[in-house]
Amino acid sequence: MSQVNVKSPLDQARENAQAFYKKIEAATATNHAQIRSNLEKVSTDAQKLGINLKALGEEQKADAKLHLKEAQLAFEDTAKRANEALAGTDADLKKKNQAVIGRARQAVAHLSQAVAARRASTTKPSAN
After folding, report:
1. Could you read off the pLDDT tens digit of each residue along the chain, which spans 128 residues?
2. For the chain, how long is the longest CA-to-CA vector?
3. Domain limits of the chain?
4. Is CATH 1.20.120 what the domain over 9-120 is classified as, yes or no?
């Protein structure tokens, strides 16, 4: 009998966030015009991830809910920082882009902690 592995919405959210983070990190080495174009997309994607995490957080237990809330706030801040970077000068663009990447990295870390908290709350102690 084969085992079927079904991903939970929380696992899927974490995978989406990791893919999002990798995409914006890769954009750092590009030129200013490309960075600006990528930041516009980052802002939109980060806002969507934040909204999705807010809804997902309502279904979780306390520990996972806390980490999801932190991830949601981090994605909202990522979107805000991306918009601020778009309004900045070319001289500040790469520095501000790095701040966006850093905040997205924090969001992904919080999602990983939420997944770990959820798994810890669903594992049952074994009888010895």
Report:
1. 455 566 788 888 889 888 888 887 776 656 777 888 888 888 888 888 888 888 887 777 777 888 888 888 888 998 998 888 888 887 788 888 888 888 889 988 988 898 888 888 776 555 44
2. 63
3. 9-120
4. yes
